[in-house]
Amino acid sequence: MMQSKTISDIVIGRMPLYLRxxxxxLNEQRQIASSQELGKRLGISAAQIRKDLSQFGxxxxxxxxxxxDYLVNKIQEILQVDRVWDVALVGAGDMGHALASYQGFxxxxxxxxxxxxNDPEKLGSYIGDYKVMDIADMNEEIHKAGIxxxxxxxxxxxxxxxxxxxxxxxIKAVLNYAPVNLKVPVGVYVQYIDPAIHLQRMTYYLKSExxx
Amino acid sequence: MMQSKTISDIVIGRMPLYLRxxxxxLNEQRQIASSQELGKRLGISAAQIRKDLSQFGxxxxxxxxxxxDYLVNKIQEILQVDRVWDVALVGAGDMGHALASYQGFxxxxxxxxxxxxNDPEKLGSYIGDYKVMDIADMNEEIHKAGIxxxxxxxxxxxxxxxxxxxxxxxIKAVLNYAPVNLKVPVGVYVQYIDPAIHLQRMTYYLKSExxx
Lengths: 212, 212
What we know:
The structure is a homodimer. Chain A is of the alpha/beta class. The first copy, chain A, has helices at 9-27, 35-42, 46-54, 68-78, 94-100, 138-145, 156-168, 195-211, and strands at 32-33, 60-61, 65-67, 85-90, 110-117, 126-127, 130-134, 149-152, 173-176, 189-192. In chain A, a hairpin with a 3-residue loop joins strand 2 and strand 3 (65-67). The mean pLDDT of chain A is 91. At the A-B interface, helix 1, helix 5, strand 10 and helix 8 of A face helix 1, helix 5, strand 10 and helix 8 of B.
């Protein structure tokens, strides 16, 4: 598909937040949402939301709000999560187990399909329905399955090396749980799960109470 | 402390990102950073970064860039992570174990101090240095320790009830790993760790390749 214009990464970064809020509204049996209400839920201005969405097309009429199910479908198409992506998980430790049993991927476009580890004691064991496979077979298995997305839940010290191997195996998007910055080539995307970022965002607001 | 003006939550949300990027630069033995370079690392415009930082004071001189260690200290003060906050963890399952052994909180303002679960088989067991305590004692223990921050790593179905009990115990900030929206009173802050959001942000960019 040829893209007629480049949309800023900041805007792309807000689309999943809109989608999650809209899906929550759907779960609340809601049908119509205004940009004002969406903005209030997300702490983003209504004008910003309208501007962001308008970059992808006309999704609502002035004054009538957005049809939630229509907008959910459209954003799912935009983000390409109107399909289910298979995901490879590397690391069968505590975090890997937690991810493999996590219910939050359902209906959001992702399912874990392959799990790898390098610990001989873990190989062959099952996490849910999936057998933990040898990281030595990662290249072959990921290629064979045509998987493009990986979650990295290994210790910080080994994360870069595993990322390099994932990229060789054809992975284009890495969700990194290791608290380390990854170097990746152009065309490969990395996102970080970093709980300290979220905690720091809240401690700002705790300040005034402590000073009382 | 009386605040002379209200700073938007969007700006506050970017401050931890600036801090992380600057701390990484420090680790790379860097001393000076320009807003351009910081912006490039973060995908945020240099003008936006200067505008955000200027809301808290004058941290750099026109044309000379920011002294990284000075700016790190200042942002740590602003976000109140120039201290170490004790954190209560609820849920001693896979995610709880992963969080308890996570190295990414070091030097970022947080340490887990109390761990709770309701599973009789887990009570009294140790995760690292900390004994898993009965969730029935949560109110008393959190009050006694004066803890204001909690991480919630329990199944979705029980998350709201546990959150209610945490708030009664004096918790003001909840980092929620359960894939469920929490209702909390004014003055209590919630952040969500949601891997699907990060994955969806990347699949947008994978689109064009699949369509080739």
